[in-house]
Amino acid sequence: KNITVWETGTVGGEYIKTLGHYHVGELSETYWVIHGEGIVLLQKRKTGTDGLPINDEIEEFKAIQVKAGSKVFMEEGWGHLVCNTGKTWLVTADDSPVNFNEVDPVGLPGHADYEPIKKLRGFAYYVIEKDGKPMLVRNQNYKNVPMCRI
């Protein structure tokens, strides 16, 4: 298992988070929350007539609040990121494969595609702090996004 630790706080009003990615190939993943609390964002892209994903059109979107003891399953084909919305460290374990022969196996593993997220400057929604609570704000770089609330 892999262990990830997020510090507390915000950057520009947005909670500390992972960059987020889609998996390459047929790969699902499970996260177990060990300590703290946060929000897991999951998004599934629409598929074009050519069978390829349309990066700026999201078919389904979920914002899942988690805390110590929570478990979240990321299905194949779903992009995901995690942010720390709590007052303490957020710590998770996951079953994602790590190939230590890669150039940057932890920061940029080969099984993860970060480029669509980078190009669109994040996920379909950002998790920001408003009046001390998390709130979703739509990323305007996406053409089509379903409504979602925390």
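Above is the first protein from milestone M3; the second protein from the same milestone is given next.
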Amino acid sequence: MRTEILIYDGFEELDAFGPYEVLGEAGFDVALVTHPATDRIVTARGAIVVPHRQLSDRAELLVVPGGWTKRPPKGSWAEVQRGVLPPVIAQRHAAGARIASVCTGAFLVAGGGLLEGRPAITHWNDVDDLEAMGVRVIRDARVVDDGDIITAGGVTS
């Protein structure tokens, strides 16, 4: 399955590299991608990552990592405010990609309108903010599988 993990400045390292390792070991065709194209991304902890390529329009599974608790100037909160990634995620979903978010990556998915009225979960510390976006938060869930969209409370979920 062609799988792309969408990385952006301030993403949480484990939220991307955990799925990258597990999905790769399971035989998925996995790539770290960006939108728009860039030569490097700086993670939440300052590591520099060189992406494989730009986000394609052929992903079957798009994984959206989180990275935001306390709303730093980089990370998923900043990306929701910037407004570029949420509609791109929604476009990939409309084209048939399954979407999976890890932790606060759910906010990028919600920002694209994909979680409105749907069940979902995010990091326990941020569930009120997700609920305020019109999402039906399942507070005691670790993972919520709503068919074509899966959300996880964290990378260990």
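Note on the second protein: Residues 13-25 form the longest helix (13 residues).
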